[in-house]
């Protein structure tokens, strides 16, 4: 298989970069069959028209020496023809489809219309996934300061986060609304995305001739610090033709951070089949392997908490999941991600003890005490370029917080941004006074009778 050979481990941002999959030297090492590659070549030339050999290699992300055998087979079978080329060999030839080749290509498109980088075998994906798990990442208080720098946390709460990240298991963050649960969860994601190192994922993998796409440019951030990333097309071709280069069927990305909220349903956790193109897209949580999957506002999803937890109770315990294709066949795949549940509902009303036992870390975030509230308030004043006026805080406690309203960390941001809007509307310098806070809070904290 293509992953039997690897380059040396590199270092990035304090965490090791997993070994890069090395480009295959032969069709056998690619893990694909001649027939499979022939169909991909036919579909590629059918959709792109006359194609130069090196461009075909680049489209498929496979060295030309790997596809040469398939190209020759198609030529011998009179499915493709050579329309000319330079003297450097078949890598420079211009290939087009014959009439017979177009018929065969249309038949291949009806079976599967996938065109793009050749997939890797499922076994290679699984092997690479276990090389780059979230478990055991290097995480120290110093490395957490940057992603958590904008939050005001008590020391004991801050010190609970690191072990949760290192465990790579699951985290349950709960407490009343407006006190930073989502912000904390996203800060964990920021750490993973920036200081957690990078990983390799395939554009797609193949399982029992079913192509399943993995890389999603809307969710995955390409690590542009990678040495193997080049913009020069000629340099890309040279890498495809050289020995020991990184397998271009894989993408080096920053550890993914995928956030879902009330829109989550059970169908999103299954393979998505495109009936027209005849291939699959990996489910949303699968794309989070090697990173973070945040379920925000847990308990408010389209799917009930019970059904969602029943779907995940075994994956959380066993660290693997199953994907099911249209034929009913199941494939075991890794479930290697840090799952964060964030909710402002009572955990006991959402989940039972059996599930809570499988959640390794529980972090409760309560309403801030006054000293913490003042620090959050001052931090937001600084962010908005506004003076800090303690009399404005005094007013909030006198008028609201000592008379039944529970302080929320988010009140600081919301009230001060309201003050900012008032100042800008009046063409005044942005500043804070007790009177402006009286006006802003009357607007923001509506009292209905």
From TrEMBL:
Ranges of residues in domain AAA+ ATPase: 167-369
SMART domains for this protein: AAA (SM00382)
Region of interest (Disordered), ranges: 1-28
Signal peptide location: none
Protein's name in the database: Putative ATPase with chaperone activity, associated with Flp pilus assembly
């Amino acid at each position: 298989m293509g992953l039997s050979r690897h380059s040396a481990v590199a270092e990035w941002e304090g965490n090791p970069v997993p070994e890069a999959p090395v480009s295959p030297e032969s069709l056998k090492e690619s893990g694909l069959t001649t027939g499979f590659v022939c169909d991909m070549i036919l579909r590629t030339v059918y959709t792109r028209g006359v194609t130069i050999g090196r461009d075909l290699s680049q489209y498929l992300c496979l060295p030309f020496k790997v596809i040469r055998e398939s190209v020759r087979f198609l030529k011998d079978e009179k499915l493709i023809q050579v329309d000319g080329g330079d003297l450097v060999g078949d890598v420079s030839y211009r290939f087009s489809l014959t009439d017979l080749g177009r018929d065969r290509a249309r038949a291949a498109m009806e079976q599967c219309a996938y065109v793009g980088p050749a997939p890797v075998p499922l076994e290679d994906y699984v092997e690479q996934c276990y090389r780059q798990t979230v478990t055991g990442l290097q995480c120290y208080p110093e490395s957490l300061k940057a992603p958590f720098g904008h939050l005001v946390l008590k020391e004991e709460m801050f010190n609970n986060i690191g072990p949760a990240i290192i465990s790579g298991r699951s985290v349950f963050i709960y407490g009343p609304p407006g006190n930073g649960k989502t912000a904390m969860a996203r800060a964990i994601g920021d750490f993973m995305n920036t200081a957690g190192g990078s990983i390799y994922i395939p554009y797609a993998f193949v399982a029992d001739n079913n192509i399943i796409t993995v890389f999603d440019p809307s969710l995955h951030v390409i690590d542009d610090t990678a040495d193997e990333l080049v913009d020069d097309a000629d340099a890309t071709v040279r890498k495809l033709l050289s020995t020991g280069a990184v397998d271009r069927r894989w993408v080096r990305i920053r550890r993914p951070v995928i956030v879902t909220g009330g829109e989550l349903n059970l169908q999103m956790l299954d393979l998505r089949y495109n009936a027209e193109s005849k291939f699959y897209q990996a489910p949303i949580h699968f794309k989070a392997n090697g990173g973070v999957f945040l379920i925000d506002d847990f308990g408010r999803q389209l799917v009930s908490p019970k059904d969602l937890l029943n779907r995940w109770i075994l994956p959380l315990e066993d660290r693997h999941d199953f994907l099911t294709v249209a034929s009913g066949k199941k494939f075991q795949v890794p479930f290697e991600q840090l799952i964060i549940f964030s909710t402002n509902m009572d955990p006991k009303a959402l989940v039972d003890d059996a599930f809570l036992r499988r959640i390794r870390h529980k972090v409760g975030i309560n309403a801030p005490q006054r000293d913490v509230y003042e620090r959050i308030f001052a931090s937001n004043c600084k962010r908005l370029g506004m003076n800090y006026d303690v009399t404005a805080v005094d007013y909030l406690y006198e008028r609201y917080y000592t008379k039944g309203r529970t302080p929320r960390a988010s009140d600081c941001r919301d009230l001060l941004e309201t003050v900012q809007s008032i100042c800008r509307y009046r063409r005044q310098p942005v500043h804070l006074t007790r009177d402006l806070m009286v006006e802003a809070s009357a607007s923001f904290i509506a009292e209905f009778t």
